[in-house]
Design a protein that fits this description.
InterPro entries: Peptidase_S1 (IPR050430), Peptidase_S1_PA (IPR009003), Peptidase_S1_PA_chymotrypsin (IPR043504), Peptidase_S1A (IPR001314), Trypsin_dom (IPR001254), TRYPSIN_HIS (IPR018114). By secondary structure, the protein is of the alpha+beta class. Helix content is 15%, strand content 35%.
């Protein structure tokens, strides 16, 4: 009895300690989120680390809500022509990285319905009004990262092929770690929630975007709906887009700690989800964090394939409905932007902790290989089709009076000269007198023999 009581005294504090440090993991997808994993974490700065992942169950807890960027501001019209929305809409965004290739988060389409087409360059969600300029393309192929399995610690990325190229400007993919170094400011964007517990009202305004059918979608082969796997998908569009694709980062320094990055989307725009802001594309700046802080504040964080960022003022965050959207290191214009991440997951109370993004530099080679080996596209060369502009109306000119004709002169008589005959070349005996080639050769040999005999014999 004494031994049992002693064991209970040891177990009770451990139970409460574990209960205090257990975090439920969720995704940035709009709709209902289902807790799929519980991980013991060490609290740091009282940060709530409830994250989100794709739903895989019908057992939906009533207290969980899912989807605009919270905080932030309305993105300027046509500032992000590479921003993509899917149809049928899964509650996720994406980015155009090549006139015929789109990437997004794998969890958006893992074990679920696949999109048929995409709108490229849209600004206002759920609306098509006069004056809109966007492109629609059909998705003809979709490739999920081979390591993605719906879990964590796997690449959450998918690539899609479009049926026809888009004329929009693609975004560049990061190629250097400096793009995401500590303290770098990055920008997230999307149409997710504008508050944590609700959605935003819509205001229909003129817009410029394209709609394209998705003809192929590939999830990262390592994605499995868990953490620590590549949350990436790639799609092929039926037709090219005229919008500017986003560049993919090549350098890990693009997202080094301290770098300011920009997230964008149509997700939540406030913590409680109820707001009066218009349902337009929003973007917000966040600051890249160190791997140590990400490890301390994010459950299941995997630094080899993930990066994390947070607004230091805790007023701006990507939220539910923003999944799959790009996180960019902004340049002077869309053509100069560099995509460093894909919105993957974050706290359910979106302002309470860092957001986690797929690290583009870790998945760039896979994306590049799928584009080249499966579709014959080059990631580093983005030939964009030129939009067909209507011919400009010809200016109406006032009638011009014809000048009076000048007096005609009598034509000069030029004497006719006899034709000049070309000089006649002397015939070459062997070639011009013998038609057979073999006879010509014998003729040449005998001629040379005769000449040699005259001079040497």
């Amino acid at each position: 009895m004494i031994m049992i009581r002693g064991a209970m005294n040891l177990l009770i504090p451990c139970y409460f300690l574990l209960l205090r440090e257990v975090t439920t993991i969720f995704a940035r997808e709009e709709g209902i989120s289902i807790p799929i994993a519980e991980i013991g974490l060490e609290h740091n700065d009282n940060v709530d680390r409830i994250m989100t992942v794709e739903r895989n169950s019908t057992n939906i807890p009533e207290e969980v809500e899912m989807s605009m960027i919270i905080g932030g501001e309305i993105a300027p019209l046509e500032r992000y022509p590479y921003m993509v929305e899917f149809w049928p809409r899964p509650g996720c965004g994406g980015s155009l990285i090549h006139p015929q290739v789109v990437i997004t988060a794998a969890h958006c389409f893992y074990n679920g319905p696949k999109p048929d087409n995409v709108d490229i360059g849209r600004h206002t969600r759920n609306s098509v009004v006069p004056g809109d300029k966007f492109e629609n393309r059909k998705i003809v192929d979709l490739v999920i990262h081979p390591k993605y399995n719906g879990g964590f610690r796997v690449p959450d990325v998918v690539v899609m092929k479009l049926e026809k190229p888009s004329t929009m400007t693609p975004v560049k993919l990061s190629t250097t770690a400096n793009d995401t170094k500590i303290g770098t400011t990055v920008t997230a964007m999307g149409w997710g929630k504008c508050s944590v517990n609700g959605s935003c009202d819509e205001i229909l305004e003129p817009d410029k975007f394209e709609n394209r059918k998705v003809v192929e979608l590939l999830l990262h082969p390592e994605y499995n709906s868990g953490m620590g796997v590549p949350d990436v998908a790639i799609m092929k569009l039926e037709k090219p887009s005229a919008m500017t694709p986003v560049k993919l980062s090549k350098n890990v320094n693009d997202a080094k700690a301290g770098t300011t990055v920009t997230a964008m989307g149509w997700g939540k725009c406030s913590v409680n989800g109820s707001c009066d802001e218009i349902l337009e594309l929003k973007h917000g700046n966040l600051t890249m964090m160190t791997r140590k802080r990400c490890n301390n504040q994010v459950g299941g964080f995997t630094s080899t394939i993930e990066i994390c960022a947070r607004d230091t003022a805790k007023k701006t965050a990507d939220c539910q409905g923003d999944s799959g959207g790009p996180v960019v290191k902004r340049g002077d214009n869309a053509a100069a932007d560099i995509q460093v991440g894909i919105i993957s997951r974050g706290p359910m109370n979106c302002l309470s902790g860092p957001s986690v993004y797929v690290k583009i530099t870790s998945q760039r080679n896979w994306i590049k290989n799928v584009m080249k080996n499966r579709w014959g596209f080059s990631l580093d060369q983005n030939p964009r089709p030129t939009p067909v502009e209507p011919p400009a109306p010809k200016p109406t000119l006032s009638p011009v009076k014809k000048p009076s004709p000048a007096p005609t002169k009598s034509p000069e008589i030029i004497p006719t000269l006899p034709p000049v005959k070309p000089p006649v070349k002397p015939p070459v005996v062997c070639r011009d007198t013998l038609a057979n080639v073999s006879d010509q050769i014998i003729c040449y040999v005998l001629t040379i023999y005769g000449i040699l005999r005259i001079f040497y014999f």
